[in-house]
Design goal:
globular; alpha+beta; about 30% strand; about 30% helix; four-stranded antiparallel beta sheet; 4 strands
Length: about 80
């Protein structure tokens, strides 16, 4: 059984933005992964970036530098 943990969830308006986030993070060795949007969150597209909450500042900086506009950044149990 998988352990439920508090995670930072970044949702996007489009799938293109979600995939761009994945590529930027991969290119910069930033941990995280794309996941289906959790049922407790509503979002424009069905994908979200999931990462440790401690990395929020780094991820916000990456989003800004890459010109990716997130729909929302939320912490939730995943």
């Amino acid at each position: 059984m998988r352990t439920v943990e508090l995670k930072l969830i970044i949702t996007f308006h489009t799938t293109t933005d979600a995939m761009a986030m994945e590529q930027v993070c991969r290119d910069n060795d930033i941990p995280g992964r794309l996941i289906p949007v959790p049922k407790s969150i509503t979002a424009g597209c069905g994908l979200a970036w999931c990462a440790a909450p401690a990395g929020r500042a780094v991820l916000e900086e990456v989003l800004e530098k890459a010109g990716i506009k997130p729909e929302a950044l939320q912490e939730c149990l995943v």
